Amino acid sequence: MPMSQQNLESELREAFPGADIRIEDLAGDGDHYRARIVSDAFSGLPRVRRHQLVYAALKGKVGGELHALALETLSPDQAG
Question: Cα–Cα distance between 1 and 41 in angstroms, integer?
Fold first, then answer.
């Protein structure tokens, strides 16, 4: 069963409190999302490590309940 946009956003907000999170359903099928996350947690980290933090927060759901997730992960200073 696909992950709802609401559930995805809820899990990300729990993992990254205070972050600016925007979710877009790319295909309208609840299976392909784009997430833009601006969080202090990403400050000083390379993109790969940022993405690893997001995948860890989703506890293995990427590739299962969540088929595809395009990520944009920024620190507040990068977001401007």
Answer: 30
